[in-house]
Amino acid sequence: MVVRGSKRDAMSTESIKAQARRYERDEKWTRALELYLQVLEAQEGEDETEIGLYNRVGDLQIRLGDVDAAVVSYQQAIDLYAEAELTNNAIAICRKVIRNAPGRAFPYLRLGRIQAGQGFVVDARESFLRYAEKQERDGETEKALRALMEFVELVPDEIETRLFVAEQLASRGRKDEAADHLSTACRIAMEKGEEEKSAAIADRLRELVPDRSVPAPEWDESEPDPEPELGADLEGFESTALMDEAPPEDAAEGVVDLESKADATGFAEFSDISLELNGIEDEEFPSASGTDEAEPTPESSSLPSFDLEEDDGGDGTADLPLLADSETASLDEENGDESEPLPTFDLEDVTAEPEEEEAPARAEIEEWRAQGVALLSGGERHKGRELLEQAHRAFAEQGDPERAIQVVQTLLTDRPGHPELLQRLVEYAHQSKDRDLLVDALFDLAERLAEADEPGKSVATFRQILKLDPHHDGAREALSKSPPGRAGEGSDGSARWVVPKEASTGDEEADFARMLSLFKDQVTKNLSPEDSATHYDLGMVYLEMGLFEEAIEEFRLSLRARPRNLAAFEVLGQCFLELGNPEEAIEILHEGVELPVGVEDDRVGIYYFLGRAHEEIRNTRAAIEFYEKVFSLDINFRDLTERLRSLR
Predict the structure, then answer these.
(1) In the predicted model, is pLDDT for residue 277 greater than 50?
(2) Helices (H), 481-581
């Protein structure tokens, strides 16, 4: 972008930039940098500013190994984009700093401010937490605390972070400030109707400052509440983990609606947040704001999902998805309980439409099972497992979950406690409408999750067991032993997560680090606002482990809930490339190219993997075309220059 003012010799400037670009193509980085700096120097002090040149100068400085100078150039670009109210461009440069200079803390602070200004509360919280984490690791505990205090000023109705800040202030002897935050949090909880949470906060307030009165909610009971506008209660919910697009207004059919969980845990709704703050010192960046229009609601998916979501400390009613009324009717009549429907699971493989080729005959599936058992017994376990896996999937596809259960149970004798097999057993037990078997399968899975250090998921599963069997002693005992403060559950399972008060060690930095780690763990594991983000995060874990097929499944589930998630298209393309399927990668990546984006930089990864895919199928011209698009955005992206050099 060029901010125009007084006229200058445009021909001379353009010729200098053209020469700089030629030097870039020839990888003469120093000569190109000198020319770009010459243009910027000529613009200095004038009204005309070409913001993109600061970005390009930063890229070249990174290429030449001068990271500190590059960071300064990127900062100038971010500031100028913010002043011009081009917040998407500013966000893109923040991400570039994170990508090329990952040790820096400031881009997270900048991102948090912009995201809060746009009303993306969850994204903003994550960015502020990342900034606080990095400052704490650098020994800058006070800066970390000030950042979190800034966040609660930007997002005043955000209860959980405010409670954390209050405890940190109290530990530093700043009781009056802590009491102010507790008082505000208590009032907000009252106004939201969260009586147990407000009571817990009020108790803490009295404990800290005995003579402090408990606040009253700020509403005028003399005036009737205005009629809510259609859709108004959905305003303010957004994506997580730095993912770009706004979430759908309605959860996909059969997918857990975790936005309702957000309400239960103190998440706030925002439409217009001022970024003018008092008392927050940060010389690196001014505040910025911007707006994004909400995404249109995607088409609902007809395929249900079984997601062992981390426990949110709620009352258990939204821990796992439920069957449709038509599916539960027969089972409820048999059990005499119309209020306890069974959970719905993701049966993508089970319910997928059959291939055009002829389905295997029953005798053939039985032969697979018999051969699989024989191979297992004879020591050829790998081949035996493959045949048994093939058999249980085929039985399920033909509508015989009972036979599929028998095969999975055989596999479990060979691989006891295998989580994927346990989940399959849960799915088939649900299909067979065998409540007792379902409860047993869920219990085995919950115990396995607990052993695998997944306490949030195990607690959610134990609670689902109690919904199906309120007198299940094993689940009750397991919940009674769950770590206190882990998901904020009281003995009654109510949502009352307050940062636990712990004795100070006398080491302020160590205490802050411990509490920040606990708080971030709670936010990450127990306050996830939407199912799509959970599947995306799990897919990234699988991707990092090299489990590409499992990653693809999770990314597809994420896209089912949020079809406009550009980041999921990018990593899906990467997974197909890793599996040696460039044609499928090209198809899925082109879907991502067609999505609207705020700035072209958002597509840099999509273009890169398209180049990789075309390179693998020996379509050199297309590969170079996509690589050059990446080059125009970020010359330091991955191994871009090496790939271009080899193709030219």
Answers:
(1) no
(2) 508-526, 531-545, 548-561, 566-578
pLDDT tens-digit profile of 171-210?
Answer: 888 899 999 999 999 999 898 888 888 899 999 999 988 8
Check residue 625 and report its DSSP letter: H
Q: How far apart are CA 633 and CA 645, in angstroms?
A: 17
Q: Is 60 exceeded by the pLDDT of residue 366? A: yes
- From CA 225, how far away is CA 193, in angstroms rounded? 15
Structure confidence by residue, pLDDT tens digits, 233-243: 333 333 333 44
Distance CA 58, CA 36 (A): 10
pLDDT in tens, 389-442: 889 988 888 888 899 999 988 888 888 888 778 888 888 888 888 888 888 888
DSSP helix/strand/coil, 49: strand
247, 564 contact by CB (below 8 A) = no
Contact 306, 426 (CB under 8 A): yes
CB 75 within 8 A of CB 91: no
* Selection from 184, 290, 226, 473 nearest residue 481 by Cα: 473
Which tokens hold the place of 239?
A: 């994506």
Q: Could you give the percent of the chain with pLDDT greater than 70? A: 68
Report which of 424, 421, 367, 432 is spatially closest to residue 399, judged by C-alpha positions.
432
DSSP state of 234: G
Neighbours of 229 (CB within 10 A): 8
How far apart are the C-alpha atoms of 468 and 94, rounded to whole Å?
48
Supply 331's token pair: 């089972």
According to DSSP, the residues that pair with 563 across neighbouring strands are: none
Measured at the CA of 103, the angle between CA 99 and CA 106, to 5 degrees, comes to 85
Strand partners, 3: 49
Q: How far, in Å, CA of 494 to CA of 488, rounded?
A: 8
Which amino acid does the sequence have at 329? A
Q: With H, G, I as helix, E, B as strand and everything else as coil, classify residue 50.
A: strand
Q: What is the pLDDT of residues 590-606, one digit of tens each?
A: 999 999 887 888 899 99
Count CB-CB contacts under 10 A for residue 232.
12
Residues 6+ apart with CB under 8 A from 90: 77, 78, 81, 82, 110, 114, 288
- The total number of residues written for the chain in this structure: 648
Q: For residues 172 and 144, what is the distance between their CA atoms, to the nearest angstrom?
A: 14
Beta bridge partners of 322: 343
Which is higher by pLDDT, 488 or 70? 70
Residue 50 phi, psi dihedral angles, 5° rounding: -95, 95
Instruction: Specify the pLDDT at position 300.
Output: 36
